[in-house]
Amino acid sequence: MMKVQVHDDVHTTETSWPAAHWMISFGYVWFFAGIAAFTPFAAIYYRSLDFSSVQVGLLAAMPAIALALTSAMWGAVADTLAAHRVILRISLALGAVLAVLSSRAEGFWLVFAGITLLSFSTVPLRSLMDHFAVLIGDRVNRPFGRIRLWGAFGYTAFALTLGRVMNEKVTSFFLVAYGVSLLLTLISTFALPQLPRQVRRPLLEGVGELVHNRRLMMVLLVAFAQAVAAFMIVSSLGYHITSMGGNASQVGVAFAVAAVSELPVFLVGAWLYRRVGADRLIAIIIVLYAVRMLLLAVVDSPGAVIALQAMHGLTFGGFLVVCIPRAHQLGKGRHPATVQALLTMAAFGFGNVVGSFLGGALLDHTRAAYVGVAILMMVVLVLYGMSVRLWREEKPALPVG
Asked: Would 175 be classed as within a structural domain?
């Protein structure tokens, strides 16, 4: 007889979790296809509208500003009300509509209004997708990296396809493609199981509790620093390539190479996590980010930039396979969506704000900006190493039982 699990008022069968695994996997395909449609081409499109460097930087940073301001709130709301699925559905539907409407906007202020509304509407998506993936992965014995791998497939396909479609000139078509991808994500994930309601607490109690977790806060610092590097690359690389004589097709290839480089990292990520250990992996990733930024600062051809994108898997992909499960582990199962929301806020919010704004505002000085971020990564490495050593020395003095 089929066994039924009961969580408060939510009834789900065990056989629903394998189906949920495929739903979230295909959801990742389309979700990251949308990111591939939007992020590589946005800054090039804004510059093609003759916006200033500061205007380009502000528009590039707007999705991250929205994340930084409201991500933790949405995580707390989802956990408290068990509204994960409802919020995901509304956010995807609203984002799809606003993306298409934004593609019709003309002039800085209308474009700014459209991108701002679009950015705030899609805030909950990344943390909720990751939250579902982590919990579903636990149920079906699949590590997070194996599920997130599907996103790399979608990203690769769309980055290559859209770049070839637009070729020499980036148009607002990328926003339409983004909206279609969000709609397909909604269709893929619509039947995801409802997640259990958490014990009712004051809305921001989980945030207050988690910010006192020192180990988690250091992981968030790493998340912030790597995001500054990652999103500076995302917002500036397309223009960096075209300024060397490259075209939109080469921009698409560069981001496709980055996505493909994630595949082996996602496949072996869980093994590396167990074999090397979270703290050592985090330190290695920080060093690799510094090396990647320095190399980007010295190469002088589109082909060399495309080749360096192979390091994306080791840096950004490595961050995902270690920091997302590590944050979940350090949260000890309490306020799980809030933990992922805080991680999202640190990386895809504040880190994205700084990286995207600098990448857009310093389009004419990208080499110096890359060197500056490499220095930032080494500072974070020192801080993280000192904190890990300090906590290990403190551990024997902690009371037992």
From this structure: yes
Domain housing 62: 14-396
CB 321 within 8 A of CB 145: yes
247-258 per-residue burial string, b: 16 or more CB within 10 A, e: under 16? bbbbbbbbbbbb
| Per-residue model confidence (pLDDT) at position 395 | 47
Exposure b/e, 358-392, CB count within 10 A at least 16 = b: bbbbbbeebeebbbbbbebbeebbeebeebbeeee
- Provide the token pair at 305: 């930039």
**93-124 pLDDT, tens per residue?**
999 999 999 999 989 999 999 999 999 999 88
Q: Is residue 139 part of a domain?
A: yes
Supply the DSSP string of 20-37, one letter for each residue.
HHHHHHHHHHHHHHHHHH
Per the CB < 8 A criterion, the answer to whether 206 and 334 are in contact is yes
Residue 65 CB-half CA count within 13 A: 14
Note the pLDDT of residue 9: 37
| Domains held by the chain: number | 1
Within a domain: 207:
yes
H or E, element range at 7: strand 4-7
| Residues constituting the chain | 401
Q: CB–CB of 341/68 below 8 Å?
A: no
Give the C-alpha separation, 344 to 357, whole Å. 17
CA angle in degrees (0–180, nearest 5) for 343-336-282: 40
Which two tokens mark 334?
């309490």
| Residue 4 confidence (pLDDT) | 34
Residue 5: predicted pLDDT:
40
Taking only the tens place, the pLDDT of each residue in 141-164 is 887 777 877 887 888 888 778 767
- Residues of the chain where predicted confidence (pLDDT) is lower than 50: 1-15, 200, 203, 394-401
Residue 393 confidence (pLDDT): 52
In a domain, 2, yes or no: no
